[in-house]
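Q: Entry one of two.
A:
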Amino acid sequence: MMRLAHALRLELILQVRQRFLHAAVFSGFIWLAVLLPLSRSLRPVAEPYILLGDTCIIGFFFVAGTVFFEKQERTLGALISTPLRFWEYLAAKVTPLVLISLSVALVVPTISHGFGYQLLPLVVGTVLGTLLMLLIGFTTSLPFASISDWFLTATIPLAVMTLPPVLYFSGVWTNGLAYLVPTQGALLLFGDAFDQVSLAPWQIAYSVAYPLMWVVALWCTARRMFTRYVIAQSGGM
């Protein structure tokens, strides 16, 4: 646990230096600029989409940014020569970003909407949605040398994770295949938090269990990808 604590402390320092916290605050202001001009009756309608956008930006792009910073500074190769284990390294990386995403997800609706939302589905949806996007962003960034190389390819998983749930939730596309996309669960929980949908018991179970299954699978995939693209060239972690 001491290794994890030290890694978490270092990651927090690096993310502050790399101005990810500043970027999160800025994104919060952007969401408020979108929400506050709307009437109070329209804000709860828009907030589930805003929250999904928050999890995607902070989860998907921020973690990839940290990976490319590490590649640029050549610290990834150095990490594998330390006693730090992979799960400690990745846990230290994603924990601050989950907390940042959760902070934005709580502050923005509270300012725009007051406390007229359900806290539990909002928190669970934010944590699961952010974890999903963090692990996808981390995994997809590992094979690429620079963020410019990664960016175009990254639009594919980003589109897959966002478009079907948004289209289904808005009623534009009603095909049940949208439930195969794990971020559908997060969006349903956001809708429930703002009374935009009434979830059946099976939908609640799906919205928690299915994303968690993906988180476990993506964590294992991230470990294999890290082994292939980092450890295999330098040693072992």
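Q: Entry two of two.
A:
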Amino acid sequence: MGISFTVLSSGSTGNATVVRNEDTTLMIDAGLSAKRIDELLKERDVTGEEIDGILVTHEHSDHIKGLGAVARKYDLPIYANEKTWEAMEKSIGKIAEENRIVMDSGEVRDFGSLRVESFGISHDAAEPVAYCFYDGNEKLSVATDLGYMSDKVKQAISDSDVMVLESNHDIEMLRMGRYPWNIKRRILGDMGHLSNIAAGEALSELMTGDLKRTYLAHLSRDHNMMDLAKMTVRDSMEERGCFYKDSEFKLCDTYYDRPTPWDKVSEP
């Protein structure tokens, strides 16, 4: 079967992704209401009872809004590092002790035949992480809320077959937008969010024969548009000598209001 995934929702209004293989189904974050998560799961023919656990990237509300409710409803284990647990405990409510599992930043853990690697990222949270998933020779990386693309992150997600990568904002749209300057400065800073240009710069370095598709994720509804993001990322890559055909590599959409179709990492 290999790795399959669907991005249920992506953006500042809520984030959740489901990754599965033949014997394991995991959710990354639960940043929408439990009711909405159930609706999105149903759209992709998944039930809460099929989820084996929830991996948490960090404690911001758009990543944990429904975490406690979903975990309690389906008696699910939650995996997060200790600092994230400390930062989010008051927000998610009481969690059964057996479902409160510490997964350290940098830890590699096997969930059945699905191997998961956690790695640290730069963001204004207690100890934010992103994740890589492995099944045999397949590799999927899911990395958003990146203040910048560090060498450590590049190393972690290199040699991926498919990526879900942040392309949060168009820099000029953000600078001219309605946000107060302190928020703009946060987003643009090294602990904020990755711009379209920065996503393209990173992809130009990460493009190998293995990388087949990248889903542009966590787009700002105020300061970005999917078509603009894809165009800017492509232009940024080509400026750095990275040319490709859609038959060789594809930039794919994510949505804040509906899930992406199931994608099999093994598919060309």
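A: Comment on entry two: The longest strand covers residues 114-120. The longest helix spans residues 226-239.
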